[in-house]
């Protein structure tokens, strides 16, 4: 079983749609959680950290359920520019290993 | 601001050849990492360093060696390249005490081993 698993995708949605990505992790001792975004043939970049109480950044909302070891990302009012691969990332010990999920590709269509 | 710079960006090797990938960061970060990315598998950690003069193995260290002689540089070496090492390699850095968990990545190095 992979340490971090994500929806296989791809997700093809029309502009303006709401889309949700799911992620599960296997190590219950994991301490910090993130969503990264990776554009085609580019490096990953931090989209947002995920906090236990849930957090929002504009059209993006992240949720964490430690009991279920589950992380989610909700994108509202999708834009063409949101097309990318979204990577769920879990850190077990600060500064040591950041474990990446395989990613879920999103295509927002006009 | 250069951030994290990787060289070379592209390289083609024959099986058995050796090479070194260089990662340089100008943000005075303590932690540095080498990942490889293969289709459908996400990024996998090869080696990492928590400071100058230190290195540690990640998930997939076999066939690679690393060195961190200077804080700003992290080198990844392939002593005898194999086709299974064809991949995109990403270097990343993280600042100590930076609790955002923001990894800064280089643009990647595409390696093909024939």
In short:
The complex is a heterodimer of chains A (110) and B (114). Chain A has no helices and 11 strands.
Characterization of this structure:
- The complex is a heterodimer of chains A (110) and B (114).
- Helix content of chain A is 0%, strand content 55%.
- Chain A has 110 residues and is mostly beta strands.
- In chain A, strands 2, 4, 5, 9, 10 and 11 form a six-stranded mixed sheet that branches. In chain A, strands 1-3-8-7-6 form a five-stranded antiparallel sheet, with no helix packed on it.
- In chain A, strand 9 and strand 10 form a beta hairpin.
- The N and C termini of chain A lie far apart (37 Å).
- The mean pLDDT of chain A is 93.
- The mean pLDDT of chain B is 93.
What is the topological layout?
The complex is a heterodimer of chains A (110) and B (114).
Chain A: E1 4-6, E2 11-14, E3 19-25, E4 32-38, E5 44-50, E6 55-57, E7 60-65, E8 70-75, E9 84-91, E10 98-100, E11 104-109
Parallel strand pairs in A: 2-11
Antiparallel strand pairs in A: 1-3, 3-8, 4-5, 4-9, 6-7, 7-8, 9-10, 9-11
Chain B: E1 4-7, E2 10-13, E3 19-25, E4 31-38, E5 42-49, E6 56-57, E7 65-67, E8 73-78, E9 87-94, E10 104-105, E11 109-113
Parallel strand pairs in B: 2-11
Antiparallel strand pairs in B: 1-3, 3-8, 4-5, 4-9, 5-6, 7-8, 9-10, 9-11
Determine the most extensive contact between two protein chains. A-B, 24 and 27 residues
Distance between the termini of chain B: 35 Å
| H/E element order of chain A | EEEEEEEEEEE
The counted number of beta strands of chain B is 11
The Cα radius of gyration of chain A reads: 13 Å
Separation, N- and C-terminal Cα atoms of chain A: 37 Å
Structural class of chain A: mainly beta
What share of the residues of chain A does DSSP label as strand, in percent?
A: over 45%
Please count the helical segments of chain B: 0
Strand pairing plus helix content of chain B: what structural class?
mainly beta
Number of helices of chain A: 0
Round the mean pLDDT of chain B to the nearest integer and report it.
93
Point out poorly predicted stretches of chain B. Answer: none
pLDDT < 50 runs, ≥5 residues of chain A? none
- What percent of residues of chain A adopt helix (DSSP H or I)? under 10%
């Amino acid at each position: 079983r992979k340490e971090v698993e994500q929806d296989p995708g791809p997700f093809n949605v029309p502009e303006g749609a709401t889309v949700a990505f799911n992620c599960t992790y296997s190590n219950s001792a994991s301490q910090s959680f993130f969503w990264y975004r990776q554009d085609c043939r580019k490096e990953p970049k931090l989209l947002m950290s995920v906090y236990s109480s849930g957090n929002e950044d504009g059209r993006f909302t992240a949720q964490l359920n430690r009991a279920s070891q589950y992380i989610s990302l909700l994108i509202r009012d999708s834009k063409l520019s949101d097309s990318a691969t979204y990577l769920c990332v879990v850190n077990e010990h600060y500064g040591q290993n950041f474990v990446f999920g395989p990613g879920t590709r999103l295509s927002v269509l006009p | 601001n250069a951030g994290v710079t990787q060289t070379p960006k592209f390289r083609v090797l024959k099986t058995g050849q050796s090479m070194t990938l260089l990662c340089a960061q100008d943000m005075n970060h303590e932690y540095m990492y080498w990942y490889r990315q293969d289709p459908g598998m996400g990024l996998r950690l090869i080696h990492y360093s928590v400071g100058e003069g230190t290195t540690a193995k990640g998930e997939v260290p076999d066939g690679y060696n690393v060195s961190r002689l200077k804080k700003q540089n992290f080198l990844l070496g392939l002593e005898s390249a194999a086709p299974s090492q064809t991949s995109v390699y990403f270097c990343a850095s993280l600042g100590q005490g930076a609790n955002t968990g923001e990894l800064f990545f280089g643009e990647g190095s595409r390696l093909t081993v024939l």
